[in-house]
Automatic annotation (TrEMBL):
Annotated region (Disordered), positions in chain: 67-94
Superkingdom as given in the UniProt entry: Bacteria
Protein name: Uncharacterized protein
Organism (species): Geodermatophilus normandii
Compositional bias per record (Low complexity), positions renumbered to this chain: 67-77
Length: 94
């Protein structure tokens, strides 16, 4: 075993299933259970879009903050200084 997963073959059945929209009539189920959704599909999709947008904005803000913090840390880090009693690098012979 090489540690790599084999890619499953794409069969005609799988291709058809992936290309087909699967919508089911829920009328009998709703009637049997006495249930109605509290949120419409349109409202649900709008909430989902808002949630993704908020998460993206939060992630972008966190990334920008991390980059600024890292750049600040690098800029304020103490610079290495040669020893006061030793030769400078330009005085060393190869």
């Amino acid at each position: 075993m090489t540690g790599q997963r084999e890619v499953p073959p794409i069969t005609r059945f799988l291709a058809e299933q992936l290309a087909t929209a699967h919508w089911f009539d829920q009328r009998r189920t709703r009637q049997a259970l006495g249930w109605e959704p509290s949120v419409t599909l349109e409202e649900g999709f709008a909430r989902l879009a808002d949630s993704y947008a908020a998460a993206s904005a939060t992630a972008a803000s966190a990334t920008a903050t991390a980059a600024t913090t890292a750049a600040s840390a690098v800029a304020s880090a103490p610079r290495a200084q040669p020893p006061a009693d030793g030769p400078r690098p330009d005085q060393l012979q190869a």
